[in-house]
Input
Amino acid sequence: MRKESNEIEIWKQSGAERTAVTDHVACEEPLQITIDGTPVAVVMRTPGHDDDLVNGFLLTEGMVTSLADIRRVDTEAQKNHAYVFLVDDVVLDHARLSRNLFSASSCGICGKASIDAIHQHASPIQSDFSIPASIVMGLPATLRAAQEVFDRTGGLHAAALVDRDGSILVLREDVGRHNAIDKIVGWATAEGVDLSQTLMQVSGRVSFEVMQKALVARVPVVSAISSPSSLAVEFAQQSRQTLIGFLRPPKMNIYAGPERVV
Output
């Protein structure tokens, strides 16, 4: 059954006032793609139109040259799985698969399996970091003022690490949100920054992968201008991370870990 949003309890903050309310977040679930018996990729997506997603993925990744190469796509046999069967004279090029496979084979069966697999390598956050709500409210303007390339192009994602005083330690821009995050974490690690005492501010939405990267880097707080997905919220809760979304002063939503926003 197609499900595009989840209902959850959150805290809405306006100025100094915080209220517990019910809200909806976009649903995010993994889809494992298997071609002729070989798992080739796990993609995070909002359920729905999975056949179109699989066909487009296979084409844009160069695994098939046309839809005529595909005999059948079955997305009904098992939840969050897509089984692809190629025509007899088309052979899967295994050399193309290395960039698409997850390192942990247990990922991709369901959201819980993905979270459990990550927690085997990165334990939940223990940081005592906290940050004033007034500082968080000022981050969108601070981030926007520092986005030099965005001012010229209008089309890049940004990610920044911020200390408890709201000072930007590093900011990077990239066409890929995940690339920008990798850049700031790489810089901070090389510079010896204590990431457990930082907040990660991102310019767009928050997906499962964004929270995963923050956990591995040991960043306790992630804040975003836009919305988180349902799996990002679940991951943050289980990883004891603080997750802030819809940061649009004077309002913001705190989806997990409200105790770190003081």
About this structure: Confidence is low (pLDDT under 50) at residues 98-110. Residues 29-119 form a domain with the Ubiquitin-like (UB roll) fold (CATH 3.10.20.10). The longest strand covers residues 5-14. The longest helix spans residues 177-191.
